[in-house]
Amino acid sequence: MEAGVQKGRFITFEGIDGAGKSSQIAAVVSMLVARGLVVEQSREPGGTRLGESLRELLLHESMHLETEAMLMFAARREHLAARIEPALVRGEWVVCDRFSDATYAYQVGGRGLAAEKFSVLENWVHPGFQPDLTLLFDLPPEIAASRVASTGADPDRFEREQRDFFVRVREAYLQRACDAAGRICVIDANRPPAQIREEIERLIVERFFT
Ligand code: TMP
User: Which of 47, 156, 172, 189 shows the smallest number of beta carbons within 10 Å?
Assistant: First the structure.
């Protein structure tokens, strides 16, 4: 997106599967709407018709790790062009469940994709563009895994991965948070939802409304 064109704000949520992002995303959207803002809520992979079709493949078909990374970014390119960029240009706020930090954590950290290949794709798909704020939900993989299991839903290709995979994903997320400390806020997700919600609201108010 061209510099200076963005008027809205872009907030993303990240974390390993089972970190408890969903209910907090809904709370943030309600909070922003209550302030009179127009908010687009979306998710990745997905967010467009094509992106949702790619999501089906990504979550259920086995594939080479580079195919996986490229499909994540293909879905993202479409999402940026069709929804994220137009909304931001209109001055709306976009709240998205995952973005490129997830590709870094899962494909580079979890699967072992070369970091240089990730950077090539990231610079191709959104050169110079990053979320205004990223909330990284951090918690030990074993706690996250027990939360995923307790839903009773059929696990997808990622949720079926073993503890070691999520240990690597978590480390990569935390590394990325160190590298982008001004943008990524690490949230201790091993606390009662009401406490987490309070912290997130405070962070958003401090960052955007004071
Ligand atoms: P979700 O369950 O949070 O909606 O995300 C779907 C899965 O896709 C989740 O296990 C993380 C994974 N994922 C990646 O591996 N790379 C990515 O770039 C994104 C956006 C998601």
Answer: 156
**Residue 159 CA, closest ligand 1 atom number:** 10
Q: How far is the CA of 168 from the centre of ligand 1 (A)?
A: 15
Q: Is 169 in the pocket of ligand 1 (CB under 6 A)?
A: no
20: DSSP letter:
-
Domain ranges of the chain: 10-208
Determine which residue's CA is closest to atom 15 belonging to ligand 1.
106
Please name the fold of domain 10-208. Answer: Rossmann fold (3.40.50)
Please say whether the beta carbons of 116 and 85 come within 8 A: no
Please indicate, yes or no, whether the overall pTM of this predicted structure exceeds 0.70.
yes
Where is 11: in which H helix or E strand? strand 10-15
Closest atom, ligand 1, to C-alpha of 73: 18
Predicted confidence band of residue 7 (pLDDT cuts 50, 70, 90): confident
Q: How far apart are CA 179 and CA 182, in angstroms?
A: 9
